[in-house]
């Protein structure tokens, strides 16, 4: 069901062979995550808004790459993060460790293991004084998020063509209600159906330049 593949920037990803979907862009796993979620998500948020603690929610935890990059960015910039994520079908920890992300990111295997064992959603595991994380093995449609409880949302589900139910207007309304004001939602996709669902949910939506191999992506604002 799972196959490891090297992407064009030299970093690895996992391919779900049943769905024929990779967990990250084959044009570059690290470059995609850094561009979409760190650059146009976290960095954008911190450049616009001042928060003592940033509450992040990720739809689609996968390999944990987005969370690890968020941790690194937070440590480098003195940020306090409360990180929540859901992943209905978690990857085996041994498989994740075999990706050698610790080598590419310069983090410890212990940290990666800790992230993937933080399965106490919504109760967080304290990685250190400035970073809390909770990962739930849940379907996004089962998640109960309190209104205004999230500042920044990474939406990293498999593509709309494979998981259309996760990109529906109902899900986007759930995201909108969960976000604070101001709130930011970001994804790699730029599909028209997704953009229209976001607008109907109440978001202000903008197309912005995408990562390598993708001309555009979407960022949505609740302001």
Q: Look at the helices and sheets and give the structural class.
A: alpha/beta
Globally, the shape reads globular
Average pLDDT number? 95
Order the strands across the largest sheet as they lie in space.
Answer: 6-7-5-4-8-9-11-10
Individual helix count: 7
Radius of gyration, whole Å: 16 Å
Q: Using the coordinates above, name the CATH class.
A: Alpha Beta
State the domain count. 1
Strand residue content: 25-35%
SSE topology:
Elements (H helix, E strand, L loop, with lengths): L1 E5 L5 E5 L4 E2 L6 H20 L5 E6 L5 H13 L3 E6 L6 H5 L3 H5 L3 H8 L8 E4 L2 E6 L13 E6 L13 H10 E9 L4 H10 L2 E6 L6 E7 L1
Parallel strand pairs: 4-5, 4-8, 5-7, 8-9
Antiparallel strand pairs: 1-2, 2-3, 6-7, 9-11, 10-11
Q: Could you provide a short overview of the structure?
A:
The chain has helices spanning 29-48, 65-77, 93-97, 101-105, 109-116, 169-178, 192-201; strands spanning 2-6, 12-16, 21-22, 54-59, 81-86, 125-128, 131-136, 150-155, 179-187, 204-209, 216-222.
């Amino acid at each position: 069901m799972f196959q490891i593949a090297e992407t064009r920037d030299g970093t690895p990803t996992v391919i779900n062979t049943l769905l024929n979907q990779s967990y990250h862009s084959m044009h570059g796993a690290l470059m995609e995550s850094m561009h979409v979620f760190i650059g146009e998500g976290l960095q954008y948020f911190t450049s616009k808004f001042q928060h003592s603690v940033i509450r992040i929610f990720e739809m689609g935890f996968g390999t944990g790459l987005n969370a690890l990059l968020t941790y690194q960015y937070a440590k480098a910039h003195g940020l306090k993060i409360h990180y929540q994520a859901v992943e209905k079908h978690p990857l085996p920890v041994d498989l994740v460790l075999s990706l050698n992300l610790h080598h590419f990111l310069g983090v410890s295997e212990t940290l990666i293991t800790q992230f993937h064992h933080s399965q106490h959603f919504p109760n967080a595991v304290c990685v250190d004084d400035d970073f809390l994380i909770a990962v739930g093995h849940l379907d996004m449609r089962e998640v109960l998020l309190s209104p205004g409880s999230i500042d920044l949302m990474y939406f990293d589900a498999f593509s709309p063509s494979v998981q259309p139910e996760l990109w529906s207007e109902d899900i986007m309304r759930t995201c909108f209600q969960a976000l604070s004001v101001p709130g930011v939602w970001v994804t790699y996709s730029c599909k028209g159906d997704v953009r229209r669902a976001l607008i109907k949910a109440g978001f202000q939506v903008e197309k912005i330049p995408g990562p390598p191999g993708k001309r555009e992506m979407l960022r949505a604002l609740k302001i």
